[in-house]
Amino acid sequence: MKKIVSVLVFLLFILLVFPLNVSAGDEENPEIEDEAENDVVDYLDIISAWFYEEADQPDFLYICLKVVEINEKPLKQHLTVKWEYNGIKCSAGLAIGYGEPCFLYQAGWGHGFWFQEHYQEIEGFVNLETGVITFKIPKVLIKNPQKGDVLTKTYAMTFKRFGFIGRMGFDRAVLRSLIEILIKQNLSDFGPNEGYGKDYIIQY
Description:
It is a single chain. The chain is of the alpha+beta class and 204 residues long. It has one domain (23-201). Helices cover 15% and strands 40% of the residues. The protein contains 3 helices and 12 strands. The protein has helices spanning 2-17, 164-167, 173-183; strands at 32-33, 46-54, 57-67, 77-85, 88-96, 103-110, 117-121, 123-127, 132-138, 150-160, 188-191, 200-201. The strands form 2 sheets. Strands 4, 5, 6, 7, 10, 11 and 12 form a 7-stranded antiparallel β-sheet that branches. It has a 5-stranded antiparallel β-sheet with strand order 1-2-3-9-8, with no helix packed on it. It is globular.
């Protein structure tokens, strides 16, 4: 009996001193996984996405989204990661727009027309060699999740949006479908293709 108690005490000590960080993802263990697909254009083709935090920056959530390649040329790309927190839809995304090129990183919560959305510009950067986009998100912009809270229904979505009407929450599906028929590739992708990725537990 004493041996059993000793083993249990030892295991408890190990768990307290070296907590299992199973909820924090990385490129080798991402929350969201997808496979490269021949029928999706490379710059929209999702590979994976993962969430993580830094102990010395507890007010920020980091999310990385990896695609087959980053292409600065095509207009109006949207590359996003989405989740729910307490039933509220949240997301972070990169819009590659017109010009030299224009990179706009945003994060927030809500979905729909302007008055239903609460998004602000955030820090982010792109690694052109690896195809990884990193979002640095102030937690206050995504309903301020606390340590132990769970982000659910995680998934990634990429797509092209055409024209001003797209900014109003509409998608010109007919135009996109016609272009897809001409180029014989899809101009959108989801990861995973079905369902959702893993939940993420806030660490700090």
